[in-house]
């Protein structure tokens, strides 16, 4: 399996970046096992899944999936959809935030245009008392994302972003963003050795150093990982340092390691589930397979059940 793992990772990562496959997948519906990790195609379907999670003591963050937006009309539609999602989160009373990607809101078209769309979303979220997380994308969008975050934080405090541990710049970014709620992750894109660690051991160590740095600053920290070794190290660290459970949360993806999610809640930890939905599911699903090729079992079960 170790021999095959890297080629599989590269294969699925390449598929996730294929615009033609992404376009085709929109016509398929949730197939290839995607329904196990994507909570439906409509807001109402996703809200129902969030209610089920809340009943188990889990909070959530909703993400309307979307990539490769090249037209202003598409970006405006995506912005409107984010606002509709915020309104439905508020009206339903669920314990849920919103996550989004800037490329879906026009970042590749024009940064100022994207910022205008984000300001509409963040303003509405602030009115409704909802936190918004800007997902981090590939390295080429990293600085743009942080620039937009900086502009938004001048006016709003209900917005944060994500820092990826495999990037060499990650620790410096965490230091610079002290006081801003961050989701800390290992990273899910294929990046050049010029900008990112390639070895798992180095990524893991940088990841834990990021977590310690942000926790030690007293800033609210979202630790997004399914890695039980990382989770156990965090448990030991916060106990050693006397860090309150109210200062951090564990985050996991919808459909993955559900038993662990519920165990952590029983142990008294805050756990938030990242809940993706929408017809634009292909890139997200391929990146999940690339992260952990063992997840191919999802695809096989989905394929043979059709």
Automatic annotation (TrEMBL):
Q: Does the keyword Ribonucleoprotein apply?
A: no
Q: Which UniProt keywords apply?
A: FAD, Flavoprotein, Nucleotide-binding, Oxidoreductase, Proline metabolism
Q: What is its EC number?
A: 1.5.5.2
Residues where FAD binds: 136, 164, 186-188, 200, 225-226
InterPro entries, per the entry: FAD-linked_oxidoreductase-like, PRODH_bac_arc, Proline_DH_dom, Proline_oxidase
Q: What sort of enzyme, by top EC class, is this?
A: oxidoreductase
Recorded catalytic activity of this chain's protein: L-proline + a quinone = (S)-1-pyrroline-5-carboxylate + a quinol + H(+)
Q: What is the designated name of this protein?
A: proline dehydrogenase
